[in-house]
Amino acid sequence: MENFQFQISRLLDAPIEVVQFCSEKIKVKNVQKGEFFLQPGEVCNDTFFVNKGLLRMYSIDKNGKEHILHFAPENWILVDRSSLYLNQPSDYYIDAVEPSEVLVLSPEYFDFLAENQPSVIAKQNVLLHKHVSSLQRRITQLLGATAEERYVDFLKTYPNIFERVPQWMVASYLGITPESLSRVRKELVRKK
């Protein structure tokens, strides 16, 4: 919990005392690899902060192919915003890639935090805009960047993930086949 309180205090520029006071609104959940936080058709009711471990958010198309949108390693937050804020059924899965300790934050947590520290609202807006910006960049990359460019960006975004997930998951995130990812990695090694 201390790590979370430090991270939220830093992210939202809120005094640690306020963050600690609001922590009564948090549930800690320890999950095993493969356990779900969200499945298609369910409404996402919470935001997930990864204290330890690794989560992923993905969809499965009508042909059974998996498409990973996000990974969430330690100190990352993961949520289906459309489902949470528009109260609509999700199209996504969120599950644990490895055993994880996750802090489950209800919308009331952020409301309670804002009531006790009004400046948090402006900081949340900045973070939301950064999130939208990163999603736009990801869409642009999927539409126009080469597989090599996407892979290099993946390594920058998730520097410690490659060793923690199977290669097929990285390929799914990049929108390429595992065989193509192997070729990209070999080509990068050859260039160095």
Describe the protein.
Helix 1 (2-12) packs across helix 2 (16-22). Strands 1, 2, 3, 4, 5 and 6 form a 6-stranded antiparallel β-sheet that branches. The model has no long low-confidence stretch (mean pLDDT 91). The protein has helices at residues 2-12, 16-22, 81-86, 107-116, 120-144, 147-157, 167-174, 178-191; strands at residues 26-31, 36-38, 47-60, 66-72, 77-78, 93-105. It is an alpha+beta fold.
Descriptive key words:
192 residues, alpha+beta, Jelly Rolls, 48% helix, globular
Topology:
Elements: H1 2-12, H2 16-22, E1 26-31, E2 36-38, E3 47-60, E4 66-72, E5 77-78, H3 81-86, E6 93-105, H4 107-116, H5 120-144, H6 147-157, H7 167-174, H8 178-191
Antiparallel strand pairs: 1-6, 2-6, 3-4, 3-5, 3-6
Helix pairs in contact: 1-2
Number of helices: 8
CATH class placement of the domain at 2-117: Mainly Beta
In percent terms, what proportion of residues is strand? 15-25%
SSE run? HHEEEEEHEHHHHH
User: How would you classify the quaternary structure?
Assistant: single chain
* Poorly predicted ranges: none
The end-to-end span amounts to 42 Å
CATH homologous superfamily assignment of the domain at 2-117: Jelly Rolls
Largest sheet: 6 strands, antiparallel
Architecture of the domain at 2-117 in CATH?
Sandwich
User: On the 0-100 scale, what is the average pLDDT?
Assistant: 91
| Overall body shape | globular
Overall radius of gyration:
18 Å
Question: Helical residue percent?
Answer: 40-55%
Per the CATH scheme, the topology name of the domain at 2-117 is Jelly Rolls
Please state the structural category.
Answer: alpha+beta
Give the strand tally.
6
Protein name: Cyclic nucleotide-binding domain protein
Domain Cyclic nucleotide-binding: 24-113
Organism: Cloacibacterium normanense
InterPro entries: cNMP-bd_dom, cNMP-bd_dom_sf, RmlC-like_jellyroll
